[in-house]
Design goal:
Elements: H1 12-47, H2 49-60, E1 61-66, E2 73-74, E3 80-92, H3 100-110, H4 118-127, E4 134-138, H5 142-150, E5 158-167, H6 175-178, E6 180-183, H7 186-194, E7 209-212, H8 214-218, H9 220-224, E8 228-234, E9 240-249, E10 257-259, H10 263-271, E11 277-284, E12 290-296, H11 302-305, H12 310-318, H13 340-349, E13 358-360, E14 363-365, E15 369-371, E16 377-379, H14 381-387, H15 390-400, H16 402-411, H17 433-438, H18 451-456, H19 466-478, E17 488-491, E18 494-495, H20 509-522, E19 543-549, E20 571-578, E21 585-592, H21 598-615, H22 618-625
Parallel strand pairs: 2-10
Antiparallel strand pairs: 1-8, 2-3, 3-4, 3-5, 6-7, 8-9, 10-17, 11-12, 11-21, 13-16, 14-15, 17-18, 19-20, 20-21
Length: 665
């Protein structure tokens, strides 16, 4: 076959050598491969064994965040005013359900009320992270809880458990000052990101609640605590098959917050308002502790924990007496005649004589007539406070001027906010000539003389809130120190408030004593607050000052609101302190559109609240229980005729305030 190529070996050994060389090359390569494989296995099994064991464990186990119990909020005596309670709930895990709609249909047969919130439930479930349980309903009854567990096998992705829910045992009594908690909203997350801060993962947990309003909002981070985690074993699809108790991390509860409030005084303060609207603040005049700060009407904060129905929220928001508004801090009102001691102090500071007498013939004239409801005759400063004489204080106001009055008002606590640990305060308004220049009326920035008489009796542009009135009353009662309020007593066991030594009042204590004596006369026989301010607690008496603030220009109509709509009636105010001879507690009361005088609407409410404060004070109780001093014995001459004089008649309790003769500014 001459056409085919052939290989010829001249020597048999040459053919054998070629075969051996090929065998050696391929054998060497095989040996190197085996050596590399053995080396890699050795690295995996020996050198990196721990690393891959850890990764394997992480694939088998994961952590589910557990929200921490929220910190307790207590009153000064250790009474819990915001706590936690156990709550049964049902949850849905989206990635463990084959068909979410079908699962919710089956769940709706067991819990019919979930059908009403179906759209919101689907939105929450879709927004949650993978395998994160989303609460569908909280506060299940035992029967509902048992029913869900009974049919658990037929409800893929549904589970029932027990958690801690926020609870407010006194309902509306502390709603405004303590606040409430609610679900985290997109606005909460955005607000944190806008600050350039990282959003804590806890906020994305569907079970977490964030503080709203009051202490709950102001101290939210301290009350949150640190989240824990349950270490659970999962299958290849990420579903839980077991829990590793030993590998779980417990949550750390939030810090305990203690307030200066007293639950008994606070509850009574709300109770006395009944259906009326307004605010009440009680302070200790020695250290500034706020014992009560309530706003009426109130609302039940427990409604907001699980999500308040829109119909209920709308009803609260639309009610004309505004139960959602904190009237103690954000509600501002003209102080009316409660402001008159400010004018008196202003005059004394500028050399005035408290014994100077001014004659009241029923009106003050300055270009026009400013009425005084009553003809009080000749009055000194003490009797003018007792009778709430407008003519007397209008006269002083015109003499000292608006700038001097504004200076004293600010020194006594008006026109400012206080660092009490919570936000929302409105400073009100203390007007003066500078303010008028910056806030002209129809382009005219001049302070006209006709504005001053109204200013002198707490009307015009002047506005204050209930906390400021309590501070004012506390400073009058203390007599020497510019007392400032404190609400947060301690956080996590650490005392708050710093140094409680106060600055001195810029007045001769004798001047303040004149105001106190006048206020004591207000609650004495013939005073504007006499009838409704008697405590009935032994020899302990309460000193105070009534006030009535007009809500509009009534013209020739009735000032007392007879037949008028609620929103057109007068506001009624009362400030007081007790005991009058050695003040310990001060109170301010505002009855919004009460339609009566401060001595009729405000004084009885202040009296009831003050009685609780005094009865809870051991030293005051000891004073009440002390037997009265024996009457001095006299030798009676039976031969002489009796000279006993008849008791003086008790005049009507009136808080004079003229009809508005000029528009409100």
């Amino acid at each position: 076959m001459s056409g085919e190529p052939s290989i010829f070996f001249a020597d048999v050994n040459e053919r054998q050598g070629s075969f051996l060389r090929r065998t050696f090359v391929f054998g060497g390569l095989a040996t190197l491969g085996v050596a590399a494989l053995v080396g890699r296995l050795a690295q995996l099994q020996v050198v990196q064994a721990q690393e891959y064991a850890t990764l394997s464990s992480q694939n088998q186990f994961n952590f589910r965040m557990v929200p921490p119990p929220r910190g307790l909020i207590k009153d000064r005596n250790g009474v819990v005013i915001a706590g936690n309670r156990p709550s049964f709930r049902v949850l849905v895990v989206r990635d463990e359900t084959k068909d979410l709609d079908q699962t919710l249909d089956l769940l709706g047969r067991l819990l019919p009320d979930t059908l009403e919130r179906r759209r919101a439930i689907i939105r929450d479930v879709n927004a949650s992270s993978k395998f994160n349980p989303v609460p569908v309903k909280s506060d299940l009854t035992w029967e509902e809880f048992a029913k869900v567990n009974l049919y658990a096998n037929e409800l893929p992705g549904v589970m029932a458990d027990m958690n801690d829910a926020r609870y407010y045992p006194f309902g509306g009594s502390f709603a405004h000052v303590v606040g409430y908690v609610a679900k985290v909203s997109d606005r909460d997350v955005k607000a944190i990101r806008d600050k350039g801060e990282e959003v804590p993962p806890l906020l994305f947990n569907p079970s977490f609640r964030i503080g709203r309003q009051g202490v709950e909002k102001a101290l939210d981070e301290a009350l949150r605590g640190e989240p824990g985690g349950n270490r659970v074993e999962v299958d290849a699809r990420g579903r839980v098959v077991a829990e590793d108790v030993g590998g779980s991390r417990p949550a750390v509860p939030g810090q305990e917050v203690v307030l200066t409030l007293d639950a008994d005084i606070q509850n009574r303060a709300l109770e006395v308002f009944g259906e009326e609207s307004g605010a009440c603040v009680v302070m200790d005049v020695r250290n500034g502790d706020i014992l009560a700060m309530t706003s009426a009407p109130s609302f039940d904060p427990n409604l907001f924990v699980g999500g308040v129905p829109s119909s209920i929220y709308r009803a609260l928001a639309d009610y004309e007496r505004r139960p959602l508004l904190d009237k103690a801090l954000t509600g501002t009102f003209a102080p009316g005649s409660t402001f008159k001691p400010v004018v008196g102090l202003t005059a004394l500071k500028r050399g005035g004589d408290p014994n100077r007498r001014i004659v009241c013939n029923g009106a003050y004239y300055l270009g026009r007539r400013f009425a005084c409801l009553g003809r009080h005759g000749s009055q000194d400063m003490r009797s003018a406070i007792k009778n709430s004489c407008n003519v007397y204080f209008m006269t002083l106001a015109v003499e000292v001027g608006p700038d001097a009055i504004a200076e004293t008002a600010r020194e006594m606590g008006f026109g400012q906010t206080y660092d009490i640990g919570i936000s929302g305060q409105k400073p009100g308004l203390v007007p003066d000539r500078e303010w008028r220049r910056k806030n002209p009326v129809r382009g005219d920035g001049k302070w006209y003389p006709g504005e001053t008489p109204s200013y002198g009796i707490g009307q015009g542009a002047l506005t204050v809130n209930a906390l400021q009135l309590a501070v004012y009353a506390s400073r009058l009662a203390n007599g020497r120190k510019a007392v400032t309020p404190r609400l947060i007593k301690s956080i996590g066991g650490v005392e708050q408030g710093g140094d409680r030594s106060f600055a001195d009042l810029p007045y001769d204590p004798a001047f303040v004593q004149v105001m106190r004596e006048g206020m004591e006369a207000v609650t004495d026989v013939g005073g504007t607050g006499f009838r409704n301010s008697q405590l009935g607690l032994g020899d302990i008496r309460m000193a105070g000052k009534t006030g009535t603030a007009q809500a509009q220009n009534y013209g020739a109509g009735s000032r007392k609101g007879a037949g008028r709509p609620w929103a057109q009636k007068d506001h009624n105010l009362f400030i007081a302190f007790a005991p009058a001879d050695n003040p310990r507690y001060a109170v301010s009361v505002i009855v919004q559109h009460g339609g009566m005088g401060g001595g009729t609407a405000g004084a009885p409410r202040a009296r009831e609240v003050m009685k609780v404060a005094l009865l809870k004070d051991p030293e005051m109780r000891a004073r009440m229980e002390r037997p009265p001093a024996p009457e001095p014995t006299e030798t009676t001459d039976l031969t002489q005729p009796s000279t006993v004089e008849p008791a003086a008649p008790t005049p009507e309790a009136v808080d004079p305030l003229p009809p508005s003769t000029e528009p409100r500014l």
